[in-house]
Amino acid sequence: VISDKEFDDIGGNNNGAPDPGETISMILTMSNVGNGTASNIVGTLSTTDPYLTITQNVSYFPDLGHFEQGQGSPAYMMDVSESCPQGESVTCDLHIEADSAYTNDIVISFIVGNPLYDPVGPDAYGYYAYDILDQPEGPVFDWVEIAPAAGGPGTVIGELSGRDDHSTLLDLPFTFQYYGVDYDNLTVCTNGWLAMGNALPDSDWSNSQIPDADGPPNLLAPFWEDMNLETVGQIVSYYDPADSKFIVEFFRVPQWSPATALETFEVILYDPAVYPTATGDGKILYQYYTVADPTACTVGIENADETIGLQYLFDGAYEEHAAPIDSGMAILFTTVSTLPEVVVELTPYGAPIQIPASGGMFSFNVSLTNNESALVSFDAWCDVTLPSGSIYGPVLGPVNLTLPGSGSINRDRNQDVPGGAPAGTYSYNAYAGSYPSIIYSSDSFSFEKLTTGVGAHVTEWNNWGEAFNEGLIANTEKPERFTLHKAYPNPFNPMTAINYQLPEVSFVNLSVYDISGRLVAVLVDGWRDAGRHDVNFDASDLASGVYFYRLEAGQFSASGKMVLMR
Fold this sequence. Notes:
Layout lengths: L1 E9 L12 E9 L9 E6 L5 E5 L1 E4 L7 E3 L4 E5 L7 E11 L3 E11 L15 E4 L23 E2 L10 E12 L2 E9 L3 E4 L22 E6 L9 E7 L4 E10 L7 E9 L13 E7 L7 E5 L6 E6 L2 E2 L10 E6 L7 E7 L5 E2 L3 E12 L5 E10 L5 E13 L4 E11 L5 E11 L3 E12 L13 E3 L7 E2 L8 E2 L10 E8 L3 E9 L4 E10 L2 E8 L6 E9 L2 E9 L2
Parallel strand pairs: 25-31
Antiparallel strand pairs: 1-2, 2-6, 2-7, 3-5, 3-8, 4-7, 8-9, 10-23, 11-16, 12-13, 13-14, 14-15, 15-20, 16-17, 17-18, 18-19, 19-23, 20-21, 21-22, 24-26, 26-29, 27-28, 27-30, 28-33, 29-32, 30-31, 34-35, 35-38, 36-37, 36-39, 39-40
């Protein structure tokens, strides 16, 4: 067994632990828990983990008697990808051989980095929350004092002074985009929250989790708590035209209980025209000058529908990537400043594509290329622009994928167009990005639905074809058993897809026979990796009738029936 691991981050930050982008050495200590003596012990390390590259994979261990321990030499060497997430658990396989034909396989896993050094998020829209530990993207605490009581240049919001559970509306000096929507005003509440747009008369004092239907829409919660300005405290606003920033400060505002807990914090909105992001959404900075008691507040942001948001803190419970809030903390909420260069391209087959009135299908190729040097995870999906201009879908995906640096993939797919779809010109659209709002790249082609013509009767916008997990690092698990699925669609004209799954690398033969047993097509005849496989069958040159398909993979065999109807 392996009883210990020692790391040296060579040329890294010298913290003695693996971090993203580092070259590390790993020395393993082996313990012999058997009764005999193990001699000539060799450990060979391998990995399929996308974030690791092993450059020295063999270590030799001393002979070990019963309950003896020994370290391997030379040390294993590996490179950790720069794109490895902080706090990621990575895995290697150690194959051990020794005299007397002894073999054993052990899984070696370890954590890369610290999750506190990664941001919170993204949420389903694409917002992240970066705190002061998330460098280089994270903010630096740089307090901007605007409260007149502390000598600042701001204006006290009189509507809120001396009030409890009260809100008011402020005009913004610039248009601010938030979750994809432009706003020109802002609601400010005495209970430690703001909201983009007009949320009056909401003055919710009881904080809740994010996202949640409770509280105002378009929430900005720097310190959502039951707070009270009836005796002391100021809420102040200020526009800094030189830096294109609008600031709202809560200065020494007491909590309702305990009333001795005085909180001072501020929200800074950055003009998106001056501080652009890839999505056009504005950057939001929370800063905390004095934090007395954060154990019963909510910190985060939320969209207009109150269905998407980032929760940084709720009632003392932090998100795993969130650093604790204390005096001197800063949190930046933003979407990405630049988008990864992942390119999607569509190529239709048989253009121009015309679909008869009763419905039909077309085939196309979709390719995805990661032009970055590091791994990129992203979503891929397709939708349809109807003749009316409205969007239908997605008809494919979203599929979550990961491509290595400079990696690419392409897949042949088929798309059904139902007979009930209106006649006219359509656009078929493909996207790579973060579904549904952030688009890294897109491509499209047009097709036409006719008012006449009879073909196979189609009722749904079904999509099928070669699976996206082949050749990709994807969020899929290896199948547990051999499986041959039914052909789809069935009946078909003239194309259908046959799907099969392999739990291990196997020699595969997939063939098609007519009703008399005559071989009409060999679709696969060779080695295939473990995983899911989709194969298209084109019967354009065959007569209508019943056909059989048969899969043989190792000792497994299975067959199915399909009907070609012209």
